[in-house]
Amino acid sequence: MFVRTFAGSFVVAVVGLIVGWLYGGGTGLALTAILAVLEVSLSFDNAVVNATVLVRMSPFWQRIFLTVGVLIAVFGMRLVFPLLIVGVTAKLSPVEAIRLALDKGNPDKPGTYGYLLHQAHPAIAAFGGMFLLMIFLDFVFEEREITWLSWLERPLAKIGRLDQLSVIIALVVLTVSAYTVAEHADTADPHRKATVLVAGVLGLATYLLVNALGELFDTDDADDEDEEDLAATLEKKKTMHVVGKAAFFLFLYLEVLDASFSFDGVVGAFAITSDPIIIAIGLGIGAMFIRSLTVFLVKKGTLSEYVYLEHGALWAIGALAVILLITIEYEVPEVVTGLIGVAFIGLALLSSIVRNKRLDTADTPDRAAVGV
Description:
Helix content: over 70%
Oligomer: single chain
Largest sheet: none
Shape: globular
Distance between the termini: 31 Å
Structural class: mainly alpha
Number of domains: 1
Number of helices: 15
């Protein structure tokens, strides 16, 4: 199963490294490899979070995620999106934006592609930060049978009974960010605060829209059932594969989620090289491996075996959301972001292993009693 799941990723890696070498020689090859490894090492939490969503999708939509989704992630987010951002912020035509990108240039030098992309970072961070924050808040405010940090998750779930609390908190966090971090940013942009507010609201609205559409089409076939059966039907659907329109909107949700994880990495890659082609190739290879890892986790049943992994990944999302909002003004190294995510997931994995051993020990006497 491992070879079959990761075969496409290894093929893409080989082709990407060859293209990197043909394009930039030995230096291009080395930079491509470094960016690919960096993307994989810092995005493991992305794979776990994606797996929590992908497990609800049918094999067909899982294949769509690994094919069409990869094209969106590699060419859309790693190549087209940065060009679009630079074109919009600098008011350039697509041809001019591409020409500017191919000129490379120092990211610290005004007017270059890297510099313009860095200038657009506050809007990117506000959008991605609010989208991820909503995912985290909806998770911690939802009552669930299994809790990881029970001393904190259970009280938060009780507080979460207040309707739309996650939206209220997200708007408060956005307002505070805009009037503190963005307000004091050392920048010549007089509209920084307004930009952060608008981008943050758009991130929140995108989450609400995609999430609501997915739930709408997921429950359409339950409209004719009476109230008693509806709760049971919705509970059952949590363990079923969604199909049709519901699966499509879940796919869109997954793509926006993946994009939110990718925003900071694309901008941060300019610390390694200012060549957008090398960045797209290197991060694209890493994105492909993350996609394969996501599918592998689903097929292996890792999330059901280690039940706290989802919790660790969602807490990592909360941390990343806060970090993105901080980076509106302050620079946070990619390594720090990655280590925080790995720490949450590592602790959740250890907790899951301890839980499984405890349950196995508790079952041993019962098995001995029946002669097992």
